[in-house]
């Protein structure tokens, strides 16, 4: 990776494909992640050298699942993965970064302001507390919790017929087989494994995509059952 946040040579073509004319803004985001993100303990120091392939490109390819002008809630946004990356790659998306920890909210707020991501809103809170207050067409989560808990927390935030996009990597198939009944109980259906970025990145991002039952209403979900578990 370049000192200015630009992608390494082996990732340059994929980065240009995914970010286009916004590639300089993506490099600016990378400087945030590898600078303040590491300094404030949101990103592990060993991740700096693999920030582009393992994190930025891995998150950006998930945008292929999202229709134009969609609303998105990124649950447990942390350092903004995938929410900030998607906001840079897809300026048409209206994104809410939902994060309970104050120091992470401060980082996200400062990064959003510096990157001038006007379509992004940062909200401090837990997913189970925001059901009935926030909703979106798509709800994302990366490295937050096992799928059964994600479904309980995230599906109440999705509009009927909307999607939960859970970034899971190599654990995706096993998690889906283990938790598919729990997902259905939480109002999810039509679950599938999707590999995003094939032909663009060397290692496609593996995600579980669950559609919320169109008959399920927006609501508070299993807030009482989950209270105190996060």
From TrEMBL:
InterPro entries the UniProt entry points to: rRNA_ssu_MeTfrase_G, SAM-dependent_MTases_sf
Family matches, as Pfam families: GidB
Enzyme kind, highest EC tier: transferase
Source organism superkingdom: Bacteria
Chief location bin: cytoplasm
Record-listed S-adenosyl-L-methionine binding positions: 76, 81, 127-128, 142
Entry's localization field: Cytoplasm
Transmembrane stretches, start-end: none
UniProt entry keywords in alphabetical sequence: Cytoplasm, Methyltransferase, rRNA processing, S-adenosyl-L-methionine, Transferase
Its EC number(s): 2.1.1.-
NCBIfam families in UniProt: rsmG_gidB
HAMAP family given in the database record: 16SrRNA_methyltr_G (MF_00074)
Known role: Specifically methylates the N7 position of a guanine in 16S rRNA.
Family, per entry: Belongs to the methyltransferase superfamily. RNA methyltransferase RsmG family.
The protein's name in its UniProt record: Ribosomal RNA small subunit methyltransferase G
């Amino acid at each position: 990776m370049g000192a200015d946040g630009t992608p390494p040579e082996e990732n340059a073509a994929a980065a240009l494909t995914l970010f286009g004319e916004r590639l300089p803004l993506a490099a600016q985001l990378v400087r945030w992640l590898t600078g303040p993100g590491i300094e404030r303990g949101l990103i592990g120091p060993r991740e700096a050298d693999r920030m582009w392939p393992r994190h930025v490109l891995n998150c950006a390819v998930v945008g292929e699942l999202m229709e134009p002008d969609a609303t998105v809630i990124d649950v447990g946004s942390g350092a903004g993965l995938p929410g900030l990356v998607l906001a840079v790659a897809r300026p048409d998306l209206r994104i809410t970064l939902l994060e309970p920890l104050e120091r992470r909210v401060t980082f996200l707020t400062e990064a959003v302001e510096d990157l001038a991501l006007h379509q992004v809103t940062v909200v401090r809170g837990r997913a189970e507390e925001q059901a009935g207050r926030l909703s979106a067409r798509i709800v994302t989560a990366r490295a937050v919790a096992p799928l059964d808990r994600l479904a309980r927390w995230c599906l109440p935030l999705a509009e009927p017929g909307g999607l939960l996009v859970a970034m899971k990597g190599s654990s995706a198939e096993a998690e889906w087989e283990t938790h598919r009944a729990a997902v259905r109980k939480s109002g999810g259906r039509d679950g599938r494994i999707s590999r995003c970025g094939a032909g663009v990145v060397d290692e496609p991002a593996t995600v579980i995509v669950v559609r919320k039952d169109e008959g399920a209403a927006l609501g508070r979900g299993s807030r009482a059952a989950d209270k105190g578990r996060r």
